[in-house]
Amino acid sequence: MELTPKPNTQALSWFYGEYEKGSLQLTPKYQRNPIWSIGQKCFLIDSIISGCPLPQVYINIKTDGFGQKRRTIYEVVDGQQRLRAIIEFMNDAWPLVATTAKSYPVSDTYKPHIGKKYSELPSKMQDQIWNFPLAVQELRGWDDAQIRALFRRLNYVVEKLNKQELRHSQYFGEFVAAVEKLARDSFWDDMTFFSRRDSERMKDIEFISELFVLLIDGPQDQQGSLDRFYADYDVVFPKKNSYMLQFTRILKSLTTISDLIISSRLNKKADFYGLFAAVAEACKHKKEAVDLSPARQALLSLVQEVDGEEEQRGATARSYHATVIEGPNKLPKRAERLRILSNILSDNLD
After folding, report:
1. Most CB atoms within 10 A, among 14, 144, 229, 238?
2. Which of these, 292, 174, 313, 307, lies nearest to 232 by C-alpha position?
3. pLDDT tens-digit series, residues 33-61
4. What is the pTM of this model?
5. Are strands 71-78 and 57-64 parallel, antiparallel or unpaired?
């Protein structure tokens, strides 16, 4: 087996043809990158039609089957996101979109073709994409262990980043700008909610992103949907200002019981997520912040009971306690905490 990668060049038409034949494998087996937004995909296409070089891809060439059924498989080790975006565009999966200069500064060559799919581009531009040369490093017959070791080397710096730091390096548009602005609200400092280490590793941005997604689309199952929201709302974010105003209104409402939040388990992320969700429901049709102080005593009684002796917990406290002891970020647990806290607020607020 030849272990030394062999440099080569292939036109994008070759990748497209092998993919259509089922010989090009793009399954994300070795890498777990965030989802690419439409802005990122269009920026890549702009690089191609502008004649900018793209980073090389690594392909492991393997054989499958026996005799006359024997065939060659091209497994993409590094560069899957790029190739997937290119093939999608060549299949008319999406049109070129208008991007902001701040997030994805496309060229003047790109701009006249906004709104067009691949098949709608001038023939000369289609040919330019079809024949665009891409640098390839060919591997032959490497096994999974060798591929994984190579991938770790290729992504040595990236591997040290946590998920939110990866998102920060990947997305530059509307959603991330909104979240980072919300993270500057004095509420978070007043609550002493995040440690210095949290801020250094962008854990504050990540959690506030979860709360923002909760406001937009309801409780989520852990952090599984964060990448999708960063991607979907990277270039165009409908109702962004409205959502941001709602978010700020919820924070102002929460300040009315700030002493309780600071001094109780409601300062824990799992508990605060449920409280934020309940307050979001209470504020849904309000134009002003809601005074939560009438519910303060009932909330205090609940958290004291949850933290107290097991045999002294009532049914509601037992149910709440069950949502925070194991898998607290799973959707059923979050939904149950939301139900309990919403009932307390509705019973005590006008």
Report:
1. 229
2. 174
3. 567 899 999 999 999 999 999 999 999 99
4. 0.76
5. antiparallel
